């Protein structure tokens, strides 16, 4: 059965496809099944990285169960030259499953919805532009409502 997934994409390092925006566009092609894409947004880094990020979100259609899609996304990251290392460091590409039309998923290697997406402006900005009415299955709030709550808080990076 085909499911919809929302994937967050980010890059702040040049790779084999070019600058960060080029890396995000190439990753969308590698993922395939893209139904819709948010505008790309430039965001400040969190943590030790000094380079700004290009962030976007995409809705994809896939017959893969969540764990298989995660495995494929991690393989794409590796193919793009992503190396695991310092948390919040520079990266050629970062691909995260944020939401799933199946609602909630949790196992030893994956949790959907992404546990931190509600607190990340760099994720909620693209999501709000793309799927403002998608409801978070944990809180029942729409992406628009989550983004509004976040912007009412003290400014974050």
TrEMBL record:
Pfam families: HPPK. It comes from the Bacteria. It comes from Sphingomonas panacisoli. Catalyzes the transfer of pyrophosphate from adenosine triphosphate (ATP) to 6-hydroxymethyl-7,8-dihydropterin, an enzymatic step in folate biosynthesis pathway. Belongs to the HPPK family. This is 2-amino-4-hydroxy-6-hydroxymethyldihydropteridine pyrophosphokinase. Residues 87-98 form the 7,8-dihydro-6-hydroxymethylpterin-pyrophosphokinase domain. Its EC number is 2.7.6.3. GO terms for biological process: folic acid biosynthetic process; tetrahydrofolate biosynthetic process. GO terms for molecular function: 2-amino-4-hydroxy-6-hydroxymethyldihydropteridine diphosphokinase activity; ATP binding; kinase activity. Pathway: Cofactor biosynthesis; tetrahydrofolate biosynthesis; 2-amino-4-hydroxy-6-hydroxymethyl-7,8-dihydropteridine diphosphate from 7,8-dihydroneopterin triphosphate: step 4/4. InterPro entries: Hppk, Hppk_sf. Keywords: ATP-binding, Folate biosynthesis, Kinase, Nucleotide-binding, Transferase. The gene is folK. CDD domains: HPPK.
């Amino acid at each position: 059965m085909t499911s919809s997934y929302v994937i967050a994409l980010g890059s702040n390092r040049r790779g084999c496809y070019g600058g960060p925006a080029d890396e995000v566009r190439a990753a969308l092609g590698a993922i395939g099944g893209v139904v819709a894409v948010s505008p790309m947004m430039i965001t400040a880094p969190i943590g030790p990285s000094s380079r700004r990020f290009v962030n976007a979100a995409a809705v994809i259609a896939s017959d893969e169960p969540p764990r298989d899609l995660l495995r494929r996304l991690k393989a794409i990251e590796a193919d793009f030259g992503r190396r695991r290392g310092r948390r919040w460091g520079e990266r050629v590409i970062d691909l995260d499953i944020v939401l799933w039309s199946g609602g909630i998923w949790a196992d030893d290697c994956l949790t959907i919805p992404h546990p931190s997406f509600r607190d990340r402006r760099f994720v909620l900005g693209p999501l709000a532009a793309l799927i403002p009415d998608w409801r978070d299955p944990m809180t029942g709030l729409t992406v628009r409502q989550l983004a509004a709550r976040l912007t009412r808080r003290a400014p974050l990076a």
